[in-house]
Every structure is written in structure tokens, then in C-alpha cells.
Write a structure and sequence with these properties.
Helix content is about 25%, strand content about 20%. By secondary structure, it is α+β, with helices and mostly antiparallel strands. A hairpin with a 3-residue loop joins strand 9 and strand 10. Helix 1 crosses helix 4 and helix 4 (about 245-265) packs across helix 6.
């Protein structure tokens, strides 16, 4: 049998129905392992010029309240607008359009300007979890899809370092969500169980790609991961959406989030950039036993705080590709997850 840790091969992603090329022999290149550390991040607890800090005025003239925990407001520069009843689809040959309506909100995780989720204590992260759940409950009563996201770090497009995320509610199912929806439904029809619940059980048994776990959650580097240190977080029992989580599951989620995100920071001794997002069952559907709640974390860093993976060339024109195996990435993150994390 060919050693997958040292030979090129492809891995199948059953969630998206796509393949990824793995080239582990390329990690033998002589530059691997170089470490470059960025200057320390010395943000103040409060920044009078920050649009997201408590009591400050935002770009549109609105003033933030003196909030002391989490804070949600309508995005001043929303990518989606409430549905327009006069908008209609168009089709002329190959050129098609359809209306896209929704709402976008900004989710401030903390009043402190100098923190990240990784640096917050579990009690405060739990407040963020509750905020996520409340947003899905509210917007999900009116929209087909509610996307919770966080873009952390300038390299991932974050325009403000204040700890925050976003929620986009859509009156349509986005492209990647449609793929996950179709593939999870097909798997459930064939096996009678949610795909990701089976995945969680296999990863618990293997531990080869496990970064951290507790009684309720498991954090893994997926077998089919595309980004070098990509991770996926899943509950160990059936859960369709964030609002369905019990108090205990929310507490344990806050705990494992801090462990996993702190491991990222320790990997290259830097505040690790990433884009993350929660995927749960489409919100206007009723019971969807084929769906299992999960979160994706897509960090760009490859071998140091300043060297990132670029999806170019073959990746853009042919197929996703990675060098470091998911098993190797998980081992490095797992080791980082066991080290104490300094307080900010």
C-alpha cells in the first residue's frame, strides 16, 4: 500500500463533492520550517478612533451605546438589502439574473478593542455563542439562510481589528451551501444517518486528525482539508442549528473555541488570521435530520507568521492542492493546544 504521508494523491471531500490534490513530498523543500515573527500587537483596550468601540460614532453618524458585553447593529455598508417585491429574474441567452435580498449585521464580541476570541475567557465567549444563536433565531424566521462569519486579521480582509464578526441573512441558498445541502441529503438517504455525525465518530475513534475534543465537541483538521491548517468543529451528537444547543453544549463550545483558537496563535507565535463560518440546516426548513451543525476555519498561513498559502496557478485553474498532510497539520496544532495560553 502506498504511504500517503510521502506520496502525491487525491482526497475526496464528500461535503462539496470535490477533490483536493495532496503533495506531501514537497514538504522536503529546504525552506520549510523558517519562522518569522511579526511585531507585537499593542492595541489599547479602548480606541477613540474605532468605529466599533463603545460610545464611539460610526461612519454613518450613528453612535454606539456604552455596551459592556456583546453588541449587534445593522451593517452600515450592507452587501444585501431587504427583498424588493418589484425585482424579477431576467434571462437573455447565457445571461441570467435573479433578485438577491437579505440583511447584514455586525456582531461585536467584546467592548475591549485589544482582545480576540482566543484571548477572551470562556464565560465571555459563551456570550458570543448566545449572540450567534439569537441572530440565527431572529433572522432565520424570515430568511432561507443565515451565515455567521468572522474574518480575523488584515490578511483576511478585516477592516477593523476590534473583535467582531458578521451575519448575512439571505433569501436564497448560496452556492457552497447548496453543495453541502445536496451531499448531506444524499448521504442520509443512503445511510440513514447524518454524514458529519458519522465523520465525528470516525475521528473520535482515530484521533489522527483531532486537534482537541471534549464531551460535546470535536475539532479536527478534515481529511480533505484544502488550507494548510484548516479545521472543522462539530458536535458529537445530532444538532441541526446553533439555537438547538443546550446550555451545557454552549458552555463546552466556548471552552473548545478558546482551546482551538489559542492553538492557532501559538503555532507561529502570532495572532492567527482566519475566516470562519457556521453552517447549520437551512433556517426556513423544519426538521432536517440529514444536516449536522459545524463550523469551518480557513486560515491562510503556511509556514510562519508572514508566509501564507496562495490559491493560484493549478488551484485556480484546475484543482485545490496542499503540501502538508492534514495529519501532519493536526499533530502540530494538537501539540499547541496542550500549552498554556498567556493572558492578554
Amino acid at each position: 500500500m502506498v504511504d500517503l504521508s510521502d506520496n502525491p494523491h487525491r482526497r475526496f471531500n464528500p461535503l462539496l463533492g470535490e477533490w483536493v490534490l495532496v503533495s506531501p513530498h514537497r514538504t522536503k523543500r529546504p525552506w520549510l520550517g523558517q519562522i518569522e515573527v511579526l511585531p507585537p500587537d499593542n492595541r489599547p483596550q479602548y480606541d477613540p478612533k474605532c468605529f466599533l468601540c463603545p460610545g464611539n460614532t460610526r461612519a454613518n453618524g450613528e453612535t454606539n451605546p456604552p455596551y459592556t458585553s456583546t453588541f449587534v447593529f445593522e451593517n452600515d455598508f450592507a452587501a444585501l438589502l431587504p427583498p424588493n417585491s418589484e425585482s424579477e429574474p431576467t434571462s437573455v441567452g447565457l445571461f441570467r439574473t435573479e433578485p438577491a435580498g437579505g440583511e447584514c449585521r455586525v456582531l461585536c464580541f467584546s467592548p475591549r478593542h485589544d482582545l480576540t476570541l482566543a484571548q477572551m475567557d470562556p464565560q465571555n465567549i459563551r456570550q458570543v455563542v448566545d449572540m450567534w444563536a439569537d441572530q440565527v433565531t431572529d433572522l432565520g424566521s424570515r430568511y432561507k439562510w443565515v451565515q455567521i462569519i468572522e474574518n480575523k486579521g488584515a490578511s483576511m480582509g478585516a477592516s477593523n481589528p476590534h473583535p467582531h464578526g458578521q451575519v448575512w441573512a439571505c433569501d436564497f441558498l448560496p452556492t457552497l451551501v447548496v453543495k453541502e445541502d445536496n451531499n448531506q441529503r444524499e448521504y442520509f438517504d443512503q445511510h440513514g444517518r447524518p454524514m458529519l455525525l458519522d465523520l465525528a465518530e470516525q475521528e473520535v475513534a482515530s484521533e489522527e486528525r483531532t486537534v482537541a475534543q471534549n464531551d460535546d465537541w470535536i475539532l479536527i483538521v478534515p481529511f480533505w482539508a484544502t488550507w494548510p491548517f484548516e479545521t472543522m468543529l462539530m458536535p458529537k451528537r445530532p444538532v441541526q442549528r446553533i439555537p438547538n444547543l443546550s446550555d451545557g453544549q454552549r458552555d463546552s463550545l466556548a471552552s473548545i473555541l478558546r482551546i482551538g483558537l489559542s492553538a492557532y496563535d501559538r503555532l507561529f507565535d502570532t495572532s492567527f488570521p482566519y475566516s470562519m463560518g457556521w453552517h447549520g440546516a437551512p433556517t426556513l426548513d423544519t426538521d432536517r435530520p440529514d444536516w449536522q451543525l459545524h463550523a469551518h476555519f480557513y486560515p491562510p498561513l503556511l509556514r510562519s507568521a508572514t508566509i501564507r498559502k496562495f490559491m493560484v496557478g493549478f488551484e485556480m485553474l484546475a484543482e485545490s492542492q496542499r503540501d502538508l498532510t492534514p495529519e501532519g497539520a493536526a499533530a502540530r496544532l494538537r501539540e499547541c493546544a496542550t500549552r498554556p495560553h498567556p493572558q492578554p
